[in-house]
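Quiz preparation item.
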């Protein structure tokens, strides 16, 4: 039976550490706010935005909500970002994705000042991460590194297979594992013999975006399995990219869905906000 990697507990530990840090920063006169922008009323996005505001309140930083109508133009959104870039009090700017199709996401991401890019999506942040310089790290992958480290999983020298090469999960995940001295293989939709390749992994990180896709035939006995996927199944129940019931008996450790990777993303967003407040030049 695999050890359950408890993202709920670990994310709570991180938020509690951040809460203490925020108190200490306030005592030094360092404060700041996170600006959260939502365009339209996508219900899933509304839930994410609400959770982010609640997390800010929990750790003791201010959040500024910008709820814009679906009809907002790209120009209007870019203008708001420009204003927020200039506002001293705003230390982080988060634009909830996806955006309506008439707005170019890349343009919006690039408009955010890298100093306030707490999602870690700006090309400058990604570039800095790639060459090992200090930057805001993309929240889901950096949350996974924390999950592994705080669960006592050794990364150095291990073979890690990351399934998925998206800009927000797969690619930064592979780079961060490389930074931790894992030997990394990235798999994607054109990869040949995926089950065979995955079976070589000591650490298998699954971000394939397909509900319950990865079964026992992909997993080596004793591997650590991280399931990044979030889906609602036919019964409206949350599930991941991994067939949990099939894989759990083979793995040595596994993240559940819900309660694994999901809560870590917000905790790491908060960590980036606190880092931004801390690094504020006076
Ligand atoms: P994505 O952009 O859809 O990327 C999926 C990746 O999987 C792509 O690189 C794709 O390859 C690859 N892929 C698809 N089918 C495959 C196949 N049959 N064999 C091998 N590779 C295959 O998804 P994403 O944004 O990275 O997200 C992945 C999952 O994580 C989703 O379920 C998402 O909801 C979840 N997620 C969770 C969190 C969280 O906080 N927990 C955050 C972000 C995302 P190609 O590049 O070749 O198309």
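Solution:
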């Amino acid at each position: 039976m695999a050890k359950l990697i408890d993202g709920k507990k670990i994310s709570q530990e991180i938020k509690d550490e951040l809460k203490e840090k925020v108190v200490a920063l306030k005592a030094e006169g360092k404060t700041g706010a996170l600006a959260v922008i939502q365009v339209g009323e996508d219900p899933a996005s509304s839930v994410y935005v609400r959770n982010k505001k609640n997390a800010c309140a929990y750790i003791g930083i201010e959040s500024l909500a910008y709820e814009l109508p679906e009809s907002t133009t790209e120009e209007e959104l870019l203008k708001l970002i420009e204003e927020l870039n200039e506002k001293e009090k705003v230390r982080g700017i988060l634009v909830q994705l996806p955006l309506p199709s008439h707005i170019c996401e890349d343009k919006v991401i690039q408009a955010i000042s890298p100093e306030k890019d707490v999602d870690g999506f700006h090309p400058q942040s990604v570039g800095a991460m790639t060459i090992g310089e200090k930057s805001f790290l993309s929240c889901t992958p950096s949350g996974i590194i924390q999950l592994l480290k705080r669960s006592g999983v050794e990364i150095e020298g291990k073979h890690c297979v990351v399934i998925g090469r998206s800009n927000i999960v797969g690619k930064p995940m592979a780079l961060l594992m490389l930074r931790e001295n894992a030997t990394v293989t990235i798999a994607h939709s054109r990869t040949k013999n995926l089950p065979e390749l995955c079976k070589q992994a000591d650490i298998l990180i699954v971000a394939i975006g397909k509900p319950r896709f990865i079964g026992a035939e992909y997993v080596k006995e004793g591997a650590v399995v991280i399931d990044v996927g979030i889906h609602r199944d036919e019964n409206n129940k949350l599930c991941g990219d991994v067939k949990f019931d099939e894989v759990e008996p083979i793995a040595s450790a596994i993240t559940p869905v819900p309660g694994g990777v999901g809560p870590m993303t917000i905790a790491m967003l908060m960590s980036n906000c606190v880092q931004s407040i801390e690094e504020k030049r006076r």
